[in-house]
Amino acid sequence: MQHRVIVLGAGYSGAIAAGRLAKRLHREDVAITLVNSEPDFVERIRMHQLAAGQDLKPRPYSEMFAGTGVEVRIANVTGVDVDGKTVTVTGPKGAAQLAYDTLVYALGSGWNSQGVPGTAEHAYEIAGRPGALRLRERLARLGAGERVVVVGGGLTGLEAATEIAESRPDLDVALAADGALGDWLSPKGRAHLWKVFGKLGITVYEHAAVTRVDADRVATADGRDIPAAVTVWTTGFAVHPIAKATALKVTGTGQIVVDGMMRSVSHPDVYAVGDAALAMGAGDKPLRMSCASGGPMAWQAADAIAAGLTGGKLPNAPLRYFNQCISLGRKEGLIQYVTADDRARRAALTGRVAAVYKELVCKGAAWYVANPTFGLPVRRRRVTPDRAAKASAARASA
Ligand SMILES: Cc1cc2nc3c(=O)[nH]c(=O)nc-3n(C[C@H](O)[C@H](O)[C@H](O)COP(=O)(O)OP(=O)(O)OC[C@H]3O[C@@H](n4cnc5c(N)ncnc54)[C@H](O)[C@@H]3O)c2cc1C
User: Fold this and answer.
1) Ligand 1 contact, 358 CB (< 6 A)
2) What is the DSSP letter of 381?
3) SS3 label, residue 13
4) pLDDT (tens digit, 9 = 90+) per residue, 115-125?
5) What is the pTM of this model?
6) Which of 241, 316, 321, 347 is buried most, with the most CB atoms less than 10 Å from its CB?
7) Which of the residue ranges 42-56, 242-256, 367-381 would you say has the lowest mean pLDDT?
8) What is the distance in A from the centroid of ligand 1 to the CA of 184?
9) 42 pocket-lining for ligand 1 (C-beta < 6 Å)
10) For residue 219, which phi and psi values (nearest 5 degrees)?
């Protein structure tokens, strides 16, 4: 009897985990199903580019996973029963229940309005493709001189403001940050940020915590009223509510709490990776929601599952950071070198070299996802009989 592994979500982390499992485990012993709502891979790290009018390369899962042994199922996950070990999905053929022996939860995240009044009605977001396309359409209708205010001074806000300003120099672009611009960066990184923002003519509102969004303006906690024909909301990500509705141990915000192997601390048959999971990194600090964390989390989970089924060694993926790669439009960039626990070092790479570096990182990430089993040594281990027996006993008693 095959061991059934279901991977929910085929973003950066889910697709990598599924591909790695397919390469590690023998096809006769495991059935790997990858469930995703969209039929093609969405390069989330390029959503600001999509919004600014650039077109992205289509990457259908049917091509990416052809011949890998991974069954791709295009369906929307609506619920998970971690005690019954089933997943409920709805697809073109209606609702269905899928049974698993091991689950990898990788449903990612969406935008986080943080409950600020007016965001749902008036703000645009770029955390996913539908939002980015909606903003793209709105920006295309804006006339010269009209105001775009990007709210959020984190990585996504910096990338969005510069991308929009560079592609539409006729617009009046501003950024509202609740702290100082790039206050977590090194002095060199901050200076470069100010230089690029100056060159692109972006107005910066610092210490501007936005507390309300209206159709034509945003209001800040300290009483400022900032005019905005379009408000782009980029103040972090929020996970989908599916995990919170299960018996899994989750954080207050709904991330699944996992151990060092990316295994749920409450349900050992469930692994969680990417934005959906709360895992500790270097210095015992939670890993940041990012592609940079999602990849190593996926390697760790896939290799831990393979080790558990075949008796191999437990993995030790590098759950740490090296740099923050920030695009500042297509011609400028900033690579901020960081410590293992994500604090800025003095060194930073700037300018066109940094833009090329960031572009290579984005291309590399997409290529890696699009070639899920490439380059991994073929070590399709057999699931050991006693471990398979344990798995089917667990299945029978479920
Ligand atoms: C504009 C922007 C720029 C960014 N830049 C960077 C960067 O430079 N570096 C970096 O490290 N990170 C960056 N990030 C963050 C990064 O994109 C995310 O952290 C990363 O995509 C998380 O990967 P994931 O696999 O957890 O989730 P995702 O990539 O979001 O994948 C989740 C998958 O699950 C699917 N899904 C969701 N819900 C359901 C459901 N109910 N049913 C079925 N399928 C579902 C989705 O379709 C998707 O395919 C950026 C994000 C944005 C928005």
Assistant:
1) no
2) B
3) helix
4) 999 999 999 99
5) 0.95
6) 321
7) 367-381
8) 23
9) yes
10) -115, 145
